[in-house]
Every structure is written in C-alpha cells, then in structure tokens.
Write a structure and sequence with these properties.
Elements lengths: L8 H26 L20 E8 L3 E2 L3 H11 L3 E5 L6 E2 L4 E8 H31 L6 E3 L9 H10 L13 E3 L1 H7 L2 H11 L5 E5 L2 H10 L3 E5 L3 H11 L5 E4 L7 H6 L4 E3 L2 H4 L6 E7 L1
Parallel strand pairs: 6-11, 7-8, 8-9, 9-10, 10-11
Antiparallel strand pairs: 1-5, 1-12, 2-4, 3-5
Amino acid sequence: MYNHICESDNHYIELTKLVKKDIPKTVMRALEEDLGGEININNDITVNILPKNSKAYAQIITNEEGIFCGTDWVKEIFKQLHQSVNLTWHVEERQKIKPKQLLIEIEGSSRAIITSERTILNFIQTLSGVATKVSHYVSLINNTNTKLLDTRKTLPGLRTALKHAVICGGGNSHRVGLSDAFLIKENHIIAIGSIQKAIESARSMLPDNTIEVEVESIAELIQAINAGADIIMLDNFDFEKTKQAIKINNKRVPLELSGNINDCLISKLAQIGIDYISIGDFTKNICSLDMSMRLKIK
C-alpha cells in the first residue's frame, strides 16, 4: 500500500525528486520578481552604477542559532544569473549553526553578488527558519515513537522547498499534494453522506492507496475504525479526548493528531503514545532566521 507519509523510502525519494525539479522554477520566479520580469542583471538599475568588470568579495553570516537549509537554492541563483562566481561553503545542509558563524564566502562579479543578495537571503533565511522551528519541536519528543509531520498549509509556490526544510529540521513530510493519497475530511463526509460511504468509494477507486480520515469526535473515530481507515486524524482533540481515543483505538489504526499543538503540550502527547502529530505552524507562520551579507571591494 502507498504510504503518503515520508517515513517510507519511496515517498522520500519522490519528494526529493520534486524538490530538485522545483528549485529552478522557484529561483526563476524569485529573480524575475526582482529583475523586471526577466533574468537580466542589467535590469538592476542601481547595481549598474558599478563598473561592469568590478570584482567583490562577500561573506554571509548568521546572527542567530539554528539549523541551516537552502544550499541548492543559492547555487541555482548564480547558475541562472549566468555569472562566474565562486562559492566557498562553511556550512552543510541540516547543520546546526551559531551566532556570528561564517556560512558562505562569495567571490566574483560585484554586480552579480549585490543583485543576488536579497534573493539569497530570502531563501536561506526562510528555509533555515522552518528547519530551526521543526528541530525545536523534534527535541521535545526525543525518546518517544511519535513522528512530527508538516501539512499543506504552505506559502504559495514554496511547498516543496518548505517540506525540504521540515525534513532538514528532523520532521517528516505529509502528502505533498491532493494526488498523493486520500485524506477524507469534514466536507467530503458531508458531501457523500457518511464516513463508511467515503471510505468505500475511495477503496473502490484506488485500492492500493492510503486512506486517511479526519474525525472530530469519538463517535466518528469508531466509525472510521470500523469502516477500515488506514490512518485516522484526530482534529482538534484536547489532551483528555486524545487519551480516550488512543485507548479506544487500541493500536488498531495509526493515529494522527492535528490542531492546537504547542511546545508545552507536545511532549505530553508523545508520551501517551500518539503515532503522528501534524503541525501547520511549521510552514504557515514562519520566523526567518537572521542572516546578513557583508561586501568588500577587491
């Protein structure tokens, strides 16, 4: 059966392929936003006050502790600018970083370095911010079997990039898109009539795909178990209700908890045996990591 959660090797491989495929498109859009709709360094009117062949040296440092993420996006930026620039890396993807740490040295065209500054920082600050937040939550559930998942609550156009950042932080990817697996939610159930009918219809369409069902009550949980759901999402269950659900389920079906999760509650939930906790906050409410670039003329 297809597993839409990135614990399976197949799902991880497919996500990695999607990330690599999306990086050029994502970088292209970001550069076009800055350069008048086309990737032409001459469209940066301010940088054109500099001599065309002037060279520069720059350093990117972090001003905060965190987890670094975004290596391939930086490389792609200079690839698309068609500029000869040398990058010296002092950090690896997923590496823990400390304040004032040197991350990247850049040497080459002063125009290219200055034009690309904001695009570079936008990517690595955003992705490192996500990885850092996820890493914090993962640290709270160490020594438990609970896995942390992201959601589809992502910034438009950055889904695969943000999911990559979640994995860099030690989390796991939920389904990437609507075609990955069935996730039967409240409105689907209202439209078709019942949890039983929804699962039967999904199973008849694609019998090998995972069917996850979102439930909002203990009664719906029991219906989903009896109807043969592969995974059940407990939507906005409080702590006591989650304990009750785990007891009733008795390990028959993997349980995922979603909604109203905070860092005070998450360790308690992991300790009572919830299988998965999905957190939209990872990729929806992003706190970018503070980084900066400093230039020296050569």
